[in-house]
Amino acid sequence: MKTIRRIFLTGLLISLPTLITIYVLVFTFRLLDSLLGDLLRLYFGRSVPGLGFVITILLIFVIGLIGANVFGHKMIRWLETAFTRLPLVKPVYSAARQIIDAFSARGREIFQSVVLLEYPRRGIYALGFTTVEAAPEIQHRTEQEVITVFLPTTPNPTSGFLLLVPKEELTPLDMPVEAALKLIISGGVVSPQWPCDDNGKAAR
Fold this sequence. Notes:
The protein contains 6 helices and 5 strands. By secondary structure, it is of the alpha+beta class.
């Protein structure tokens, strides 16, 4: 029984990453295919599997081409401004835009550094990202100087908690933001070496 159990666990560990990858790909395919699949079914009178996925990918590619030139960039900026002026759309769009910018290449500067803090209680440590100094009113009403810290969740770092932590309770780390994100997304499996450079690689 021990041998059978060991062989089964070995097979599970080998096949699980493949199964997860296939599940994610199938889920993504079905999601993108359904974006235009219903409209295409109304137009053609029947469902065409995969056509919605292909058209969605082509539309994304076309939008990228449009946004790559000056005229298209201005048009996209105009649409973004229009979205931010709509009462019900503004909070949703603004929040989504800020989250995407925060985790994209152009928004990495939003996270200034990686810090270690004791959370959710003393003796347990968590990784957080410092963003900006706390609002003047908050600094005025607290006895200590506090720092705004975003505490991401695993494995989805786009969700998390906003914490206002006294500066002396934070331990600055040399770990780059990108390396910390990899550590969080992987659930601690992908751990950056230390000391490391700005890319999270071991320094020589």
